[in-house]
């Protein structure tokens, strides 16, 4: 949104925002179903008494997101896809009904095979849907949840086509001989910058804690047309900033996401 400065000629001015109407959103969730989506989380139990997996928590976090988004604006709509070697539809029709998420989740399951990941099909689908959304004065956003620590996704997409906004939540293992989460994170940041019409966020964690996923999903409630750059994002504020000895204290789930112009060191 653009701002204007009003003044009386004395040099003093008042900054105001131009009135603007935010577009209703069509949000496409794309969920990684690689074998690492079945990694068990710490201190998390599913309703059946079994340990919760990443995929279980992803489903729960998406439901929280959808209910919150519909509370903000009942005109928002959602569709669902899975990501194996490439993207495929789970629920193609965009809907404002929460039941559409349950229907998608009933056919969502992890894939035991690991393979190269091509995001081109996801971007092609998103671009096609974005044109249909624009025809209805709506805005398309893709939220990709990626879980692989050793497979760097690739794509072939022309830089001139920025028809939608891409957000990424990257859930990864700690760096090791077989894992390269830093390289994968960097490639995801590049993909977001490459395809996004508005400011897209890339959020990551290597901790097996469901609350971090839920925190990130809440951060993505922000409308793309109202966002600040990610390197200026300061919510939620870490507890350490509110304590006197902030420099010497860290919390076990604190996450620092660096600016996109810098290389982020994945600490987890």
From TrEMBL:
Family, similarity comment: Belongs to the BABAM1 family.
Signal peptide: none
GO biological process, one term: cell division
Subcellular location: Cytoplasm; Nucleus
Alphabetized UniProt keyword annotations: Cell cycle, Cell division, Chromatin regulator, Cytoplasm, DNA damage, DNA repair, Mitosis, Nucleus, Ubl conjugation pathway
Protein name: BRISC and BRCA1-A complex member 1
InterPro entries reported for this sequence: BABAM1, vWFA_dom_sf
Region annotation Disordered: where it falls in the sequence: 239-268
One GO term describing the cellular component: BRISC complex
Stretches of the chain forming a coiled coil according to its record: none
The organism of origin for this protein: Prunus avium
Domain of life of the native organism: Eukaryota
Polar residues bias spans: 248-268
Chief localization: cytoplasm
Keyword Cell division: yes
């Amino acid at each position: 949104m653009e701002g204007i400065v009003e003044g009386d000629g004395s040099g003093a001015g008042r900054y105001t925002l131009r009135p603007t109407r935010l577009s209703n959103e069509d949000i496409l969730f794309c969920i990684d179903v690689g074998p690492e989506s079945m990694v068990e989380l710490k201190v998390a139990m599913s309703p059946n008494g079994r340990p919760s997996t990443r995929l279980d928590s992803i489903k729960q976090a998406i439901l929280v997101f959808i209910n919150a988004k519909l509370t903000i604006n009942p005109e928002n709509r959602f569709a669902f896809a899975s990501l194996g070697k490439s993207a495929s539809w789970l629920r193609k029709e965009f809907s404002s009904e929460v039941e559409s998420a349950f229907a998608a989740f009933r056919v969502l399951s992890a894939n035991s095979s690991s393979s190269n990941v091509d995001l081109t099909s996801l971007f092609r689908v998103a671009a096609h849907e974005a044109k249909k959304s624009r025809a209805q004065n709506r805005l398309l956003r893709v939220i990709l949840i990626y879980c692989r620590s050793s497979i760097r996704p690739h794509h072939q997409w022309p830089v001139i086509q920025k028809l939608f906004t891409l957000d990424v939540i990257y859930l990864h293992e700690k760096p090791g001989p077989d894992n390269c989460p830093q390289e994968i994170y960097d490639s995801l940041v590049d993909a977001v910058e490459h395809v996004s019409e508005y400011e897209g966020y890339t959020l990551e964690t290597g901790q097996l804690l469901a609350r971090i996923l839920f925190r990130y999903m809440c951060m993505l409630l922000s409308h793309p047309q109202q966002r600040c750059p990610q390197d200026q994002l300061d919510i939620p504020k870490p507890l350490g900033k509110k304590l006197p000895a902030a420099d010497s204290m860290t919390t076990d789930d604190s996450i620092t996401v660096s600016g996109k112009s810098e290389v982020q060191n994945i600490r987890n």
